[in-house]
């Protein structure tokens, strides 16, 4: 049942049955009545609200394209492209700096701080479409604050640019992410803690650059305590996160020794911070460092070691305490590791797990979609992953 001519109600009924959900249980999960579901499936009631369609897709664990047909794939791509264009436009608006009047009231510092906090929460829950929608307004408010009061608390400004850069890296918008991370660095000038925060995202953007490691280490050691035992969890989290970024940069360059040494250094700091922390939105701790070891091993094409480290790490309590975004991103790396050792079944299972906990990581991140294609095109690919790839329009 894949033709575009199939009514949406029949698609809902088919996908519901495939998920082995009764009409009543499906209705309960949606917060609707069984009668409402029955009318939708028989075509008596139309589905016109995009939000409702997205809710149905989430319950059925499918892409909205599986409900709307292939046209929805291009529509979602167009929506994402439009959202990125609005973010670019917001970053390119300099009118406030030249004293041009604005059409609406500026957000107060407290409102801006709350909006930034909400943006980070949205990102860490991997709700990328919602974040794309909200960022243009947040960025406009940030620039108004900078123009109105250059000496105001810069934390919200730096954090707004950081979360924007983090999202843009996910979406493979490297040039725009670089611009945004650079804005964060500029706004943080003179404050070693804020500079370290901004450098975390700049390191993500520049991971393939040979110069990135030097920059990351400079930022790490500038914020590092003189004695680890005297360091605060906040200092250690920032320093350790920067060392992890530097290690991944070294791994991408093929320098396994440097990557290992830097991760060992980060491990010492992580032991003092512990798991279940999220200082400066880093989620730094022993589990995060072990996940970085997996990512480094994958970059070095050491699939066997990466798989072993992955399987040891995900059974620990610290794994469950990580943000959904962090876990899903790691599962993409783990799938790559399974591919490196030729275990297509486990690669597919890991991708389906990532899609289950954070669908947007699979559906909106180009790197993840590429891994899905690689697994789905394998002759021994399980049906579940080929169905997912088909629903996403990838095969």
Automatic annotation (TrEMBL):
GO terms for molecular function: DNA binding; DNA-binding transcription factor activity. The keyword Protein transport does not apply. InterPro entries: Cro/C1-type_HTH (IPR001387), Lambda_DNA-bd_dom_sf (IPR010982), TransReg_Diox_bact_type (IPR050807). Residues 12-67 form the HTH cro/C1-type domain. Pfam families: HTH_31 (PF13560). It comes from the Bacteria. The keyword Cytoplasm does not apply. SUPFAM superfamilies: lambda repressor-like DNA-binding domains (SSF47413). GO terms for cellular component: cytosol. CDD domains: HTH_XRE. Keywords: DNA-binding. Coiled coil: none annotated. PANTHER family: HTH-TYPE TRANSCRIPTIONAL REGULATOR, METHYLPHOSPHONATE SYNTHASE. This is Transcriptional regulator, contains XRE-family HTH domain.
């Amino acid at each position: 049942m894949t033709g575009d001519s199939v009514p949406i109600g029949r698609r809902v009924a088919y996908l519901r049955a495939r998920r082995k959900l009764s009409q009543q249980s499906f209705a309960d999960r949606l917060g609707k009545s069984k009668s409402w579901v029955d009318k939708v499936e028989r075509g008596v009631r139309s589905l016109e609200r995009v939000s409702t369609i997205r809710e149905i897709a989430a319950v059925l664990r499918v892409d909205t394209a599986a409900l709307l047909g292939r046209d929805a794939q291009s529509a979602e791509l167009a929506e994402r492209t439009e959202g990125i264009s609005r973010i670019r436009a917001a970053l390119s608006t300099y009118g406030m700096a030249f004293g041009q009047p604005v059409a609406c009231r500026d957000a107060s510092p407290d409102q801006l701080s709350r909006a930034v906090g909400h943006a980070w929460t949205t990102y860490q829950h991997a709700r990328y479409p919602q974040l794309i929608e909200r960022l243009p307004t947040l960025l406009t408010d940030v620039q108004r604050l900078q123009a109105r009061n250059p000496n105001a608390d810069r934390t919200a400004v730096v954090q707004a640019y950081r979360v924007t850069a983090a999202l843009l890296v996910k979406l493979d918008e490297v040039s725009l992410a670089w611009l945004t991370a650079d804005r964060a660095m500029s706004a943080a000038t003179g404050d070693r803690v804020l500079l370290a925060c901004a450098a975390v995202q700049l390191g993500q953007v520049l991971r393939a650059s040979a110069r990135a490691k030097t920059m990351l280490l400079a930022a790490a050691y500038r914020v590092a305590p003189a004695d680890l035992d005297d360091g605060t969890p906040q200092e250690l989290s920032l320093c350790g996160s920067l060392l992890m970024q530097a290690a991944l940069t070294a791994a991408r360059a093929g320098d396994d020794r440097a990557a290992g040494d830097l991760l060992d250094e980060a491990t010492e700091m992580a032991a003092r911070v512990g798991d279940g922390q999220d200082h400066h939105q880093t989620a730094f701790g022993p589990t995060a460092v072990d996940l970085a070891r997996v990512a480094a091993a994958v970059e070095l094409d050491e699939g066997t070691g990466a798989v072993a480290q992955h399987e040891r790490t995900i059974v620990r309590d610290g794994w469950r305490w990580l943000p959904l975004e962090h876990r899903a991103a790691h599962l993409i790396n783990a799938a790559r590791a399974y591919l490196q050792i030729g275990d297509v079944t486990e690669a597919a299972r890991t991708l389906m797990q990532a899609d289950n906990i954070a669908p947007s990581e699979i559906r909106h991140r180009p790197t993840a979609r590429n891994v899905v294609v690689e697994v789905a095109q394998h002759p021994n690919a399980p049906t579940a992953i080929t169905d997912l790839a088909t629903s996403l329009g990838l095969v």
